Each structure stands twice: as C-alpha cells, then as structure tokens.
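agent> fetching stored inputs for the NG,NG-dimethyl-L-arginine docking request
agent> found them:
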Amino acid sequence: MPVEEFVAGWISGALGLVLGHPFDTVKVRLQTQTTYRGIVDCMVKIYRHESLLGFFKGMSFPLASIAVVNSVLFGVYSNTLLVLTATSHQERRAQPPSYTHIFLAGCTGGFLQAYCLAPFDLIKVRLQNQTEPVAQPGSPQPQYQGPVHCAASIFREEGYRGLFRGAWALMLRDTPTVGIYFITYEGLCRQYTPEGQNPSSATVLVAGGFAGIASWVAATPLDVIKSRMQMDGLRRRVYQGVLDCMVSSVRQEGLGVFFRGVTINSARAFPVNAVTFLSYEYLLRWWG
Ligand SMILES: CN(C)C(=N)NCCC[C@H](N)C(=O)O
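agent> prediction call returned; pasting tokens
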C-alpha cells in the first residue's frame, strides 16, 4: 500500500484547512444561528465581538485531525483505485481509470474519512458556535474552554457515543459528494491535459477548485442537517434523527434551509481544494 498518498493527503489537507477555516466558521454560524442577516453581517459581528481570533475558533482539533482525515481520504481513494484497476497514481495518466471506478473509490474514501472525521468535526462545530468574546478577564466564560475540555464534557455527559453525534448525517453527506469531488477533478484534468501527460499547475488548481465547489454545493443540504444534529443535545434533544431534523427544518424554514451557507461553502471550497490538489499532486511527483 503506497504510503506517500497518505502523507501527501495529510500535508495538502493541512494547507487547505488553515486557508479555509474562517469561511467555515461563518458557514457554521449561518447554518445554526439566526442572529446574522448574511455573510457580511456575520463576518463583521465576529470581528467586532470576537476579534480575528473568532474566525479561527475550533481549528486546532481539525488541524490535528486533518492528518488522519485527509490522508484517509486520499490514501483510501488512491489505494481503492489500485485494487479496482491495478494502476498506481503515476500509471493512471497513461491508463486512466473509468469514471465508475473513480466514483466508487471516492465514495469509499468519503465514507471512511467521515467516520474518522466525526468526533473532530463535532468538537469543531461546538466550539465555532460559541459566540462569547475570546477569553478576556471578566468576559462571560463559554461552555467549553477548548477542544480537549469540549471532548471531555461530551464524553462525561453523553458517553463515547456522544462524540459521534451527527456522524450518520456526516457519512451521508460525504460518501456521494466525495465521489463527485474526484470525478469532477479527474474529468476536468483530462479535459484540459494532452493524453498521457501530467496536468499543468493551472489545470490542477482550476480542476481542484471546481471539484471543491461541485462537491460542496451537492453536500450543503446534508451539511446543514449535520451541523444541526451536532448542536442538538447541547441543552436538550430536539431531533429524533436525521430525517426528523430534515422534516422539522423544512417545516419551520422552508426548502431554502437546505442551502444555508452554500455561497460561503463555495467561496471557501475553491481556494481550499485548489491548494489541496496542487500540493497533493506535487508531493507525489516529487516522490514519484
Ligand atoms: C463535499 N465534501 C464533504 C468534500 N468534498 N470532502 C472532500 C474534501 C473536502 C476538503 N478537505 C474541504 O475541506 O473542502
């Protein structure tokens, strides 16, 4: 099993994460709180009330977990393709896999990385939703003092299973959309790269960016439900499950609720995934 895909997935994911976290914080707030009138209003209020640090709340755990999550994503994808097509990453330029195999390998990577991601994503969302100013003497103390305290509190109050709250919604979100992610990337790379050659940096950046947008537009409806399921149970349980959360959200807010945060998701997805794929491709070429 080639290890370099896992390491390349780790490094490229970390670069993308830091670039995209402020967008992600605004998205989570828009999806789970009703106090903001839109993206700009949310950004202004976060900056005024919580300073620049407010945009980076909840990033430390995803930064630690991205090593696992993105390396599982790219490592499982590449090695599933190796099993399905008996071709390594380098060989695939000369022997391109079918889109069916790409989609299946992407879904496999998406499902497994979602399972690894679930506890870290839950803690990220819980911390991102704390609107108290960053700890200043005399300011009101937020419920969670940090990622470790958040994990310990959830574990103490809800047990091990509490750390996987929203995990089913996360798996339903990521499994098909990561398939879309890789199909879009591979399709655009082939479209703009001469047969058998490596895509240029510009092609990788654009293909990676649009792969991010395509997959996040498709993922946004379940991304909203996932965030709400993760915030459920903070004080009292409101939803009986993913379906109940979907039905009650539509009943109260209309079908538009499923596209809450789609603009910011897309704005974030382009640069994050352009950087992720560019660093991933170059790391593998250096090691190839
Ligand atoms: C739509 N979804 C869930 C995905 N495309 N997931 C795959 C990679 C996501 C990337 N690390 C990012 O944070 O955008």
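agent> quick read of the result: The chain has a mean pLDDT of 90.
agent> awaiting further instructions
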